[in-house]
Write a structure and sequence with these properties.
Number of helices: 1
Shape: globular
Order of helices and strands: EEEEEEHEEEE
Number of strands: 10
Largest sheet: 8 strands, antiparallel
Distance between the termini: 11 Å
Radius of gyration: 20 Å
Length: about 170
């Protein structure tokens, strides 16, 4: 069983020309990519519906209901790049309301794969479907503060998938 260190990850938001559900989309254009200090909110919650059947006195039938997804929150130290703000600005102010992106969050294995030329490989890949920014928070600026200025971007999305990746020995992940 492989364990991963949670601080080795990369986030990519990209625009797909053509149908994003295709196995091989026409093209991907990276809009925002990089390392973040925190990624939180990878969460799917299914609303359970209960059904009381007549004559069934020992509990209720549990039925699967709709699934909702929590916003993903990306945090990083302020840099010279403005990708996060430009994305929020485009969707909010520049009338790009229908502009949806696809997202990928890769958690990297720090061991080197000798078959891949000594390169690190993604251990887990989370895919986000139909991503839209819902909140941008700029850094708190204080001349007396000693911590790094942090900016954050909140993303809402319509689907979450954990990509299946082969592990050592050819066995599929789970």
């Amino acid at each position: 069983m492989a364990l991963f260190v949670p601080h080795n990850f990369k986030v990519s938001l990209f625009y797909v020309e053509g149908d994003p559900e295709d196995a091989a989309p026409a093209s991907e254009q990276i809009v925002c990519e990089g390392a973040f200090s925190d990624v939180s909110g990878l969460e799917a919650t299914m609303t359970v519906k209960t059904l009381k059947e007549g004559g069934r006195n020992w509990g209720e039938v549990q039925l699967a209901g709709p699934t909702t997804f929590s916003p993903v929150i990306l945090k990083r130290g302020v840099t010279e790049t403005r990708h996060m703000w430009e994305l929020m600005d485009h969707v909010g102010r520049q009338a790009g309301y229908a502009y949806r992106l696809q997202g990928r969050i890769e958690v990297w294995d720090q061991s080197r794969d000798e078959d891949a030329g000594g390169e690190a490989r993604p251990l887990l890949v989370w895919k986000l479907r139909n991503v839209m920014p819902s909140k941008f928070k700029g850094p708190e600026l204080s001349s007396t503060a000693s911590q790094v200025a942090i900016e954050e971007l909140h993303l809402v999305y319509e689907g979450l998938e954990l990509e299946r990746r082969p592990f050592e020995g050819g066995a599929d992940a789970g």
